[in-house]
Amino acid sequence: MSTAARRKTEQDVVSASPPPGAQKAGFWSTKSNAVLRQWRALSLERKFLITATLTVGLSMATLGYWVEKRIRSGWIQGMAETGALYLEGFLAHHVQALETSRSLPAANQAEIEDLLFNTSLGARVAIIKIWDLDGNLVFSTNRSDSHEKLHSGYLERIKAGQVVVDSDTDDHVEELKSQNLSPKLIEIYAPIYNLKTRNIIAVGEFYEFDRFLQKEIRDVKYATWFLIFNVAVIIIVLLHVIARKTSRTISMQQELLESNFARAAALAKRNNALRRAADRARLNATVLNEAYLASIGADIHDGPIQILSLMMLKLPDSGPQVMPPDELAKTIRKDLEPLIQQTLADLRNLSVGLVLPEVEDLPARDTIDLAITRHEHQTGTLVLRALGDLPEHVPRAIRVCAYRVVQEALNNSYKHAGGHGQRVSARIDGKMLEIVVADSGGASTRQPGSPASRAKLGLRGMESRIKALRGNLAIARSPHGGTEIRATLPLRS
């Protein structure tokens, strides 16, 4: 490979690889996306518990830090004031000469230096300095430069009777090292009073060892953090308990809502199915009504109208009579009477099929028995009954449907089986009324000219009535001949 080709390949590799900054940004983007996915996968309870724990923990940590600072500041100020009173008790009678003089006698200076070595004050105080009210250094146990000046801000506060504490001794590091002292000292400025007039006559500055103060502050700090930690744990535990209980309540309510939603969806689906069934039933009722009207018209046309037409043909002409009137009347009566009887019978049968007997006050058992009895009177056949103990109070719609079912089933049995072996049974099966109409088969009594669709029309009407009441209809053929019609109707329409 040539040098130019090698350089081009290296440039392509460099240009194809992303810069380091982009690689780092992509790494953190992948990490953040993974964390977000894990966070979204957590349940609501866990999200709340994590958030509450972090919030309470940070809040308690901030509160603990603030309380510790406040306690430390308060303790330092309190210890300083106590130390100032303690120091004044040692120094006050040694500096009374400053009431009238700008310097301390040598004897008083020696007495003050002796306090650091021969009394308990030396265990607490490392250095003692005395300043006059103009801020000039009068005396120092570490032989400090006498040209030092006290800070004016400190001086004004001390003249007002305050105790000033300065825990930052960095500006005296060299001075303390020259005395082989640790810089961990507390610098305290306090007024010194005249023992009689209680007027401020000087300013006392002393460097107190902080080991006693630090021990007290450390004990208080540990106690404070222990208390805050326990309070935080109690709050977090209570929040966890509340969150768990709330989460369970929400889960139960969510499950209940889902169950109610599923139930509502099922009811809506069922209502839609019922609505469609009601629409179909209404349409079928319209069709059946038209079919019934057509059937009635066909029965009237094929029956009474045909017979009346035949009667018209049998009437004698209006021409000259070849027969005496009495014999003519007898002949006419003999020919027309059978036709008139048949016409009346056909009209009675049509009216019986159209007019429903009064069943308002009849119980279910008597309603079924009435349908059987009327069929027996009309056809001259015998129907076996097996009617069980039926309830007294059954809705009228159920009783009317039961009457029509028995009527239509027996009529079909008479037409197609000659009424042989007719039997009707009725019983209660749970909350359903079960009616069975059966026959043993036989020769049909249907006239050859009558259409077979009328029987099917009756069965369709029976099925439509039963389904409108949420019942069931089953038609079965017996292996030994005959037909069984089984109808089940709910006791509540």
In short:
With 493 residues, the protein is of the alpha+beta class. Helices cover 61% and strands 13% of the residues.
Report on this model:
This protein is of the alpha+beta class. It has two domains: 43-276, 2-Layer Sandwich (Beta-Lactamase); 356-493, 2-Layer Sandwich (Heat Shock Protein 90). The chain contains eleven helices and ten strands. The chain has helices at residues 3-16, 20-41, 44-91, 106-118, 152-159, 173-178, 211-314, 325-354, 364-379, 396-417, 453-468, and strands spanning 125-131, 137-140, 164-166, 185-193, 200-209, 384-387, 423-429, 432-438, 472-477, 483-490. The strands form two sheets. It has a five-stranded antiparallel beta sheet, sandwiched between helices. Strands 6-7-8-10-9 form a five-stranded mixed beta sheet, covered by helices on one side. Helix 10 links the parallel strand 6 and strand 7. Helix 7 (211-314) runs antiparallel to helix 8, helix 7 (211-314) packs antiparallel against helix 11 (453-468) and helix 10 (396-417) packs antiparallel against helix 11. It is rod-shaped and about 190 Å long. The model is unreliable at 449-453 (pLDDT under 50).
